[in-house]
Amino acid sequence: MYRNRTCGELRIADINQEVTLSGWVHKIRKMGGMTFIDLRDRYGITQLSFNQEVNHDLAEQANKLGREWVIRVVGKVQERSSKNSNIATGDIEIIASEIKVLNKSKNPPFTIETDTDGGDDLRMKYRYLDLRRDVVRKNLELRHKMTFETRRYLDERNFMEVETPMLIASTPEGARDFVVPSRMNQGEFYALPQSPQLFKQLLMVSGFDRYFQIVKCFRDEDLRADRQPEFTQIDCEMSFVDQEDVINTFEGLTKHLFKTLKGIEIEGDFPRMSYADAMKYYGSDKPDIRFEMKFVEIKDLTEGANFVVFDNAEYVGAICVEGCASYTRKQMDELTNFVKRPQVGAKGLIYVRYNEDETIKSSVDKFFSEEVLKTWAERCNAKPGDLILVMAGETVETQEQLCELRLEMGNQLGLRDKNDFKCLWVVDFPLLEKDDELNRFFAKHHPFTSPKAEDIDLLDTNPAAVRANAYDMIINGVEIGGGSIRIHDSELQKKMFSVLGFSDENAQEQFGFLMDAFQYGAPPHGGIAFGLDRFVSIFAGLSSIRDCIAFPKNNSGRDVMIDAPATIAQEQLDELGIALVKKEN
Question: 181, 253, 165: which is closest to 217 by C-alpha?
């Protein structure tokens, strides 16, 4: 027997029981004639005690153990004289009577502790060691519980989990596909799915009116903290529903996950915000509403002062930062340097201090009188002690820069507490976005998204004004999921393809199977997909999704543990009919 108990379960009630434990040597402490070993497994840590005077040989054996050795120990549970309140088993210890070494270990390249001395690259190279750390293990336990509770919630509401193919045809729109060569059909390629979108719509045509799948998806995109080349979606679709049905069902799922996993009861409906308002007041379609600091347009209040920066700007926007009029010159310089960083891209920052004595001081006093600056303060609902920060330029670009500044101020003022959760639906997205260089429209979400019924006629006259039957769920400024009501009418789908610049032949070649299916009685349907990795990271309080994925890629898309991607043998290339061309620098 390797074990009859785990290292996380023994308590005072187990005193005098003889137990067998197995695990990894976490720490060794030698104190006079005593040796103490912390034994660790997935469930926790238990202290083992060895007395040199009582059992010299066994104590000597314990002294020869090393960190991360795998051992089995037999002993009796006793109450600790010096208790440890930091661990669940801290009231007891095991008085060991037998040790067996099951496997030795090399000295690990970093400490297996919550606060490890291993950097990201080192931890990713030895990910199997990193996964032994309690903090990473808990993230994966949370992930497991989230998938379990998701399945339970959806199963109770008649959803059926259906697997869809991993090897599909490449389709346009969206991110780049990962492609897979076919040996049996040389010169042809499969693509890995960016989502199961087409298949879940076909399942609705097939009569499976409530589908879900916890599924791997693949996108060949540049990476960032909340993006990996392979990621997991909670993918869902429903028939005979409208937007309200989908929102209500999956708002319910979100509340269920908060209650079961975080012990948080969310009362009432999630607030909703139009895409237009999200951009106007927050400069983002995924606004963080844990704090206010909304944008205020003041372009009309800046005219006539011969201040070129404002006169030449399409947009002048401000945010009011409460209680920060006392910011020093150094702090203002740091904020200016922040907005000038390449990631933000602004040329500068203008400030207005509304002092406690009700005087106003700004970086543009030369151009604007105190009386004019007070009109800015009134527009921003500023009060004495507040700081107004102003940016100007092209509308969309400046709003995005002001968004970054707003979030930075939220960070500096502690307004983005990871334990404070604010959920939001963003609705009424544009159906299309125009690429001026290519002079054509692209789907804002995907080409199967239904336009609002009242906007369909605008597809012929003003496509840019058409709103989508689409919705995104945002939690704390992170897009957790998004979906839409789909086009189920083949004629409307044909019109959509035409607006997107597809010829009838192109549309038939790329999506013919779906359009054909729609001619056999497609029901009204819609759905949503949640990013499981992002959902877990929000619940775990992580800034990156990497630590809630067992074996993630780095920012270059590499798995440094198994050294992938990698070259393959010439024989494999020959069998696939592929010749590599050296790329010129």
Answer: 165
Long-range contacts of 25-33 (CB under 8 A, 24+ apart): 25/65, 25/66, 25/67, 25/68, 25/69, 25/70, 25/71, 26/67, 26/112, 27/67, 28/62, 28/63, 28/65, 28/67, 30/63, 33/59
- The whole-angstrom distance between residue 241's C-alpha and the CA centroid of its chain comes to 28
CATH architecture for residues 12-103? Beta Barrel (2.40)
Fold designation for 136-273+422-571: BirA Bifunctional Protein; domain 2 (3.30.930)
pLDDT digits (tens, 9 = 90+) for 133-160: 999 999 999 999 999 999 999 999 999 9
Q: What is the pTM of this model?
A: 0.93
Q: How many CA atoms within 13 Å lie on the side-chain side of 213?
A: 18
| Domain range list for the chain | 12-103, 136-273+422-571, 291-412
Distance from chain centroid for Cα 489: 34
Q: How many helices (H) and strands (E) does the chain have?
A: 16, 22
Neighbouring CB atoms inside 10 A of 187's CB total 9
CATH superfamily of 291-412: GAD-like domain (3.30.1360.30)
Tens of pLDDT along 506-548? Answer: 888 888 888 899 999 999 999 999 999 999 999 999 988 999 9
